[in-house]
Amino acid sequence: MTITSKLEEELKAELALIEERGLTRKIKNLRFIDPVRAIDEGGKEYLVFSSNNYLGLTHAPEVIQAAKEANNYGTGSGGARLTTGGHFEASILEKKLADFKHTEKAMIFNTGYMTNLGVLYGLVKPNDVIFSDELNHASIIDGAKISKATVKVYKHADVADLERLLHEDATHGNRFIITDGVFSMDGDIAPLPALVKLAEKYEATLIVDDAHAVGVIGEDGSGTAAHFGLQGKVDLQVGTMSKSLAAEGGYVAGKKILIDYLINKSRPFIFSTALAPAPAAAAVAALDLLRKNKAAYLQRLWSNSIKMRKILNEAGIPLVEGETPIIPIMVGEASLASEIAGALAEKGLLISAIRPPTVAQGQSRLRLTVTAAHTEEQLTHAADLIIEVWQEAKRKRA
To answer: One of 243, 244, 338, 352 is an active-site residue; which one?
Structure first.
């Protein structure tokens, strides 16, 4: 059966408009030969500064070996954990995550995106109110919509605006304050100490998405709460295994009663086939490596981030100020961001062009991510290429 001619014409028109605005998205097939180098289908090699593999653990021998051994128990899980049963690796991972995050209990989902949907859909009711940072990840925005609760968006990291909304709120339901820990597009860190105080003052449940914080900030690499010395002060911490933990899937960690409730009420958890043993085992191995070698990994990551920022700043490249490995180069125009990213790819350097709707109109950027696996030579080479292409693109448009 074919789609209707009416629908086909509508889709063609919309795709043409996306193309005209320089917003077309296409998949580039890559095979990673190590954490920071990849080849395409033609065999061309790229230096990658566009992944979230912050610690470079995807190719650690211990992580690969753990995944291989877990495959002995099957390449898939066979069904949902509540009906088919859960493999040992999932429960082991949950126990280790709960301990790592300084919480009572944790549960895993299939992706980080699904975790936010599952937490908000399972926990928040229509008569509740969600107070959400305006730059929160799309999964938080979508989870809030699915919950059918009232959503009040506060200005980015603006504690005064959040308190104004909390003070004006007259709900008889529960209040939830939700924020990214490290914001994925700007790389800045949420003002957690102030958010904790407001949550206590206004009796709100505080949820922090630490997807880009684990393995990046905190003395032990456990994320935003540890960064501010506020372990135990965040009600729920959402995270992912697909970034610093070098695997797949998401998780939520917090008080036992909250996790037990979500196990029984979160439809995305209840009705999804569970993760296979291999990614869970890989995440366990990566987490063990992080905890064992946290000082070395974090020092290398931060040293590389500081070095890259310094070189680009000195060359006059317009960066968003920050301290994390997420380094946004502000471009403004979507077509120019795509043009620069394309020119860099031709020279063998992969950096993401971030355009609307991921960011607001006029806020297009190149999102550069530094990892602990990049060498000093690779950092310098990448910076030189960025400066060269940036200056050439600006000359053309002058």
So the answer is: 243
CA–CA gap between residue 279 and residue 103 (Å, rounded): 22
* pLDDT, tens only, 256-283: 999 999 999 999 999 999 999 999 999 9
**CATH assignment, 60-292:** 3.40.640.10
Q: Given the residues 184, 222, 242, 338, select the one marked as catalytic.
A: 184
Domain 24-53+294-397 in CATH 3.30.1380.10? The answer is: no
Q: Which of 212, 227, 233, 374 is catalytic?
A: 212
Q: Among this protein's residues, is 243 annotated catalytic?
A: yes
Active site residue 212: yes
Q: What is d(CA 155, CA 153) in angstroms, rounded to the nearest whole number?
A: 7
Q: Is 175 exposed, middle or buried (0-12, 13-18, 19+ CB in 10 A)?
A: buried
Say whether pTM exceeds 0.90. Answer: yes
Query: Which band of pLDDT confidence, cut at 50, 70 and 90, is reported for residue 397?
Result: confident
